[in-house]
Structure formats: structure tokens, C-alpha cells
From TrEMBL:
GO terms for biological process: cell division; cell wall biogenesis; regulation of cell shape. It comes from the Bacteria. It comes from Mycolicibacterium frederiksbergense. This is Cell wall synthesis protein CwsA. The chain crosses the membrane at residues 100-120. Required for regulated cell division, cell wall synthesis and the maintenance of cell shape. It is a single-pass membrane protein. Its main location: membrane. It is found in: Cell membrane. InterPro entries: CwsA. One of its GO terms (cellular component) is plasma membrane. The keyword Cell cycle applies. Belongs to the CwsA family. The lineage of its organism: Bacteria, Bacillati, Actinomycetota, Actinomycetes, Mycobacteriales. HAMAP family: CwsA.
Length: 141
């Protein structure tokens, strides 16, 4: 009795499934199966795109897209050509605050700080007692 083995070619999907099933040839089959599936998908997509282009739908879409891109580029060129003028206008419109306003603001901050300091200092002092001292303080010579 002799066993004949047929060497049928595996499809990418079968090879991928076999690679997941067996651990010895797994990585090889998984890689080869995934590449085969990807190639088949890409081939199918290219065929579909070719058919769409030939039928004219994609051609019309591409022409519309080209027109939109051309319009946008023209608008961008106009904006870029007007940039120097826009920069000059932006520089002119900036006003610096007058020095008197800055000095007044600084003095106001200093006044508020001085008032706050005096209030905090007064609150830190103990209030004098109305009772006479129990020990008399004698000045040192």
C-alpha cells in the first residue's frame, strides 16, 4: 500500500487558517496567507477603480476635484500676495499704553500694598491690657 499525497496549492485564506492552526509552520503560513489576502484585496480594488474610471464616474469626480483645488490655490495665492499689507496694518493698529497710565497703575498698586501692609501690621500687635502690670519694668542703665 502506498499513500499518494496530492500537493494541491492552498489559497491564501486556507494558508492563513493553516498557519493559525499549526505552530511549526504557523508564522510562515500566517505571513504568506496575509500577503496573499492583501494582494487579492488590492487587485480587486484596482479592478473596481479601473471600471469606475472607465465608466466616467470617477473621471467626473476627478475633474470636479481639480477645479476645486485650482480655485483654492488661486484664493491661497491672493491671500499670500496680500500678506505684507496685512502685516503692515497689524503693526500700525497696535497701540502702546501711555506712560502716564502705566505710572498711575503702578502708584495704585503701591498704595494698595501700603494699606494692606499697615492693616496686617496692626493686626499682629497685641492689644494693650487695661489691667496694671504685675511686674514693674525698670529701665536699664
Amino acid at each position: 500500500m502506498s499513500a499518494k499525497t496530492t500537493t494541491a496549492r492552498l489559497t491564501p485564506r486556507e494558508r492563513f487558517a493553516r498557519g493559525l492552526k499549526y505552530s511549526t509552520v504557523g508564522p510562515y503560513d500566517i505571513t504568506r496567507g496575509a500577503v496573499g489576502i492583501t494582494a487579492g484585496t488590492v487587485g480587486s480594488s484596482v479592478g473596481w477603480l479601473r471600471d469606475q474610471y472607465r465608466s466616467g464616474k470617477l473621471r467626473e469626480d476627478l475633474e470636479t476635484a481639480q477645479e476645486v483645488v485650482a480655485t483654492e490655490l488661486a484664493a491661497a495665492q491672493e491671500v499670500i500676495s496680500n500678506l505684507p499689507q496685512a502685516f503692515q496694518e497689524a503693526r500700525r493698529s497696535k497701540r502702546r499704553p501711555r506712560p502716564i497710565v502705566l505710572v498711575a497703575a503702578g502708584l495704585g498698586v503701591l498704595a494698595v500694598g501700603a494699606v494692606t501692609f499697615s492693616i496686617v501690621r496692626r493686626s499682629m500687635r497685641p492689644e494693650p491690657s487695661t489691667l496694671p502690670p504685675s511686674v514693674e519694668v525698670t529701665p536699664r542703665p
